[in-house]
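Lab notebook: predicted structure, single chain.

Context: the supervisor wants predicted structures on file for every construct in the current expression panel, including those that have not yet been purified. This is the next one on the list. No modifications to the sequence; it matches the entry in the shared construct table.
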Amino acid sequence: MLKLRACCAAGVVCLVLWPLCAAADMPHRKSIVKIRTTYDPHDYYRPWRMQGSRYATGSGFIVEGRRILTNAHLVHDWTYIIVRLAGRARQYEAEVEFVSHDLDLALLRVRKADEFFAGTEPVAFGGLPELGEEVTVYGFPSDGSRLAVTRGIVSRIERMRYFHSGANNLICQVDAPINPGSSGGAVFSRDRAIGVAFQNGGGENVSHIIPMPVVTHFLTDIRDGRLDGTPKFPLHVQYLRNDGLRAYLGMSPEQTGVRLSKLAPEIEAGGGLKLGDVLLAVDGYPLGNDGTIEFQEGQRISFFYLMERKQIGELLAFSLLRDGEPLKAVVKLDKPYDEFILVPGMRYERPPSYLIVGGLVFSPVSVNLLKTWGNDWYDDAPREYTEYLGEHKTPDREQVIALIDILDENINKGYAYGQVVEEVNGQRPKDIRAFARLIAENQKPYLVIGMAENYQIVLPTAQIAEKTAKVLRMYNVPADRSADLRPAAPGPGARRPERLEE
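Prediction complete. Output recorded below exactly as produced.
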């Protein structure tokens, strides 16, 4: 700003010097990229079809390895991506090389890289900024083709929800407005990038950026050519602000921590942690009675961030009290949060699983499915579905299978959808693959599908194949099941397809 004002003070000379002033005031502009994406999401209400092509525009910036870093929400379910450098007219085709929807980050590869990256330099990375630090946001507004620059300060550093995935992780709040279309753009402090612009903060001139520790986590993860994800296991804790409760749990007046009140079954089975344990410290960070740790001088954050900054396969160490006795425990962080819970969060690129039986449409409950009920999906979706949110998988149940719709035909007349499957001919299916197998193996005169609250669906076995084929023709459905539930094509070495990663 000082350079611009000094230049403009020269009066009429400013007309001549303006391009030079702008260039001096935007030293990183040659590394900023405008992105336009064509995408086509899967339809979770009619899981055999797509929703139709849509378009999104945003920003990105050049990083090491001749790649473009941007937001996952700009390129999810992509079919076609074009990119253009700031100050240049030519557009180039690009593709997604890696994407982390949890972290809302993606890395793009340009098809004609030699031409596109000629004369460019990757952006240098900084670290986590301090509160009050001045930042500059570079990006392309959605309604224009020229680079926009906004400035502000870091006003908050916290662990918050990422809108794209619903996952929680580290966020920096800045009081610089981020224009629509600037998502994915670089946020600089002096000459180094300290984050990626990605979502509105819910107030005027309040925006959120993905800070550099989260970016480097993503880039470290993919260094071996594979995205493993962010490790986390579900647990619930009780805050210990009550003196009497702390004394009852055997804590000394100097000790602080939280009580473990709910835990994923397989973590408890591993023997490291048990319900009722008092967690005193995690990875050497003492826990407050509110479950926070000090991660910057004078700044506290939820201890869950200590999990989220790890890579898959790393260890998390606990200091704890069990029945008043001090203990040490170690938990291996071997998979992401979604693999512990019955109802997975938002998913992209992968088609939903489904099975049609006599016109009855079954599919696993997911947040994608729930969001087909609109913005107020938590209140509007069937309570039979939403009651499983946050519940843990068990050995006999790894998915919630729901009757999501009925394609009307006489064989299914009188039945109601919106129910959850409990059993098939007396056996509980742990997932939709097991559900399909139980139906295929049924040799009884009637197929009896037991639903929640003792609701029964009974279909004559001899009519199911004929009626299902008729329904497919009537409603122009290409197949009675998703590709992951179909047998492999016959031939040497043929086998059933692997189950889609949860």
